[in-house]
Specification:
480 residues; alpha/beta; seven-stranded mixed β-sheet; two-stranded antiparallel sheet
Length: 480
């Protein structure tokens, strides 16, 4: 009896023989010289290592790009000849060139609607409350992003606009990070980094800092819940099922710049789609997609009656990860009585009403470990002593389970319009640049983890992170 590996080998041999038969037929295959001549006519290049389609801005300058093994695909157009040229490159080892998040060409203007089974929570798309948002001193947006918007994505002019927009955004975040943070230490945060500006800290990957924070959900066996009746409400299942089948994940922010993005098709192509609080999908499928795997909700959404957490359809038939920070050095016993908002009452109602639901509570200790990771990244610049945002908590929760994470509209793109959410019309710059959460540090750290090119980030609004190798994250700087 043939083994599976032998069958696979035989299939490859059969395919190879078929290819060779086609190649030796003069009427069915073109010679190498013919291919070379056709490529030269189309301003394309041929090398013995393979086909290399390249757009040459200055043909007099030889390419000094090091050889790499991966192939990147981009597209541009020549206005003079009104035609496009595909661009492929062979690269060798060396510094990895950041790539577009889109592996295949697609038309962003294509109308793509997927019916959604979700219904928005009460008031979620009109007069929605805005949880955990302190009123900003400057609510208006001083940056006019429309000046940097471009359509010819690979033209030199567009590249310059993208770079200029990137520099403006980074200056705003750097300024926000350096602003005075002499605010009341409500959560009694007392943390001193293990390292100052050491060599190890400067070159330790940001993804490893996020991974080592170990953001997790509480389990029944965790004390004191293993001895409390309340602990029996926690689901027996794991947060994510069939982890081996997870390849790509999308985290969809609720930013106002999601409006008009037409990224719904791209978002729904991921294995896991994470959304936040009560952000609806119905009526917004073209821009935000329809698939929802998990919702990260804060304790205000769980507690306040206007969100109707225990009954609203938008919180049903989906995995829920609810969080409340508690005090920095408080125990879990203290958390049960001193949480910011009493999320436990509605959580119990929800679990008893839907006993088969997948609703989890995030360990508050792990949330503060994530804050420590942010402070380690910021170095000697002190952060606001408030917990990270739901977006950054969601990223830390998802990254250990997903090889590739696409964070949609977390770093502002040229679609930036000043709106807080795509489903409401409130204008407040604090939603983007922060005034309560350490949002500037979060987004700078997320950008540091990004592996996508600037066009993907600042024109399309997509950050891409890769789960780091365990061998790469071998040092524990946080001391836990």
């Amino acid at each position: 009896m043939l083994r599976p590996s032998m069958i696979k080998t035989l299939k490859y041999l059969t395919l190879l023989i078929a290819v060779l038969q086609i190649q030796i037929q003069p009427n069915c295959a073109k010679t190498i010289n013919e291919i070379k001549r056709q490529l030269n006519r189309r301003d394309l290049k041929y090398s013995d290592r393979g086909l290399a389609f390249q757009w040459n801005v200055d043909k007099t300058q030889p390419s000094s790009q090091p050889q790499r093994h991966d192939i990147s695909t981009t597209f541009t157009s020549n206005h003079e000849h009104n035609r496009g040229v595909l661009k492929f490159k062979h690269h060798g080892r060396g510094s990895r060139k950041r790539r577009s998040v889109f592996h295949v060409r697609w038309n962003p203007n294509e109308r793509f609607i997927v019916e959604s089974n979700e219904n928005p929570a009460i008031n979620s798309s009109k007069l929605a409350p805005h949880p955990r948002l302190k009123v900003s001193k400057t609510t208006k947006l001083n940056l006019n992003a429309k000046h940097y918007l471009c359509h010819d994505k690979l033209s030199p002019v567009c590249a310059n606009k993208t770079q200029a927009f990137k520099e403006r955004v980074l200056k705003i975040f750097e300024k926000s990070l350096m602003e005075s943070v002499n605010e009341s230490n409500f959560y009694n945060v007392d943390f001193k980094p293990v390292f100052g500006d050491s060599f190890e800290e400067q070159y330790y990957p940001s993804t490893c800092l996020v991974m080592e924070a170990g953001v997790r959900v509480l389990k029944r066996k965790d004390p004191p819940f293993n001895k409390l009746q309340f602990g029996k409400l926690f689901p027996k299942q794991k947060l994510f099922r069939q982890k081996k089948n997870i390849k790509t994940c999308a985290i969809v922010s609720s930013a106002g710049s999601m409006a008009g993005s037409k990224l719904g098709r791209f978002i729904d192509s991921h294995d896991i789609v994470m959304r936040f609080n009560h952000a609806p999908t119905r009526g917004f499928e073209v821009d935000v997609g329809s698939k929802t795997t998990i919702r990260v909700v804060n304790s205000q959404v769980v507690t306040k009656p206007e969100f109707d957490f225990a009954h609203a359809p938008i919180f049903q038939n989906v995995t829920i990860a609810a969080w409340d920070p508690g005090k920095y050095n408080g125990t879990l016993e203290d958390w049960l009585t001193t949480s910011d908002y009493d999320l436990f009452t509605n959580y119990e109602i929800y679990r008893r009403r839907y006993p088969k639901s997948r609703a989890f509570l995030i360990d508050p200790h792990s949330i503060w470990r994530l804050w420590q990771s942010l402070q380690m990244f910021a170095g000697n610049r002190p952060l606001r002593k408030n917990p990270p945002s739901s977006g950054f908590i969601g990223l830390a929760l998802l990254l250990p389970h997903c090889p590739v994470v696409d964070f949609i509209e977390y770093m502002p793109s040229t679609r930036l319009n000043g709106r807080c959410h795509y489903y409401s019309k409130e204008i407040n710059s604090a939603c983007t640049f922060g005034s309560w959460h350490p949002l500037a540090a979060e987004k700078l750290m997320a950008l540091d983890m990004n592996v996508a090119d600037d066009m993907s980030v600042f024109q399309f609004g997509i950050l891409r992170m890769r789960r780091p190798d365990k061998l790469l994250c071998g040092f524990n700087f946080l001391g836990y």
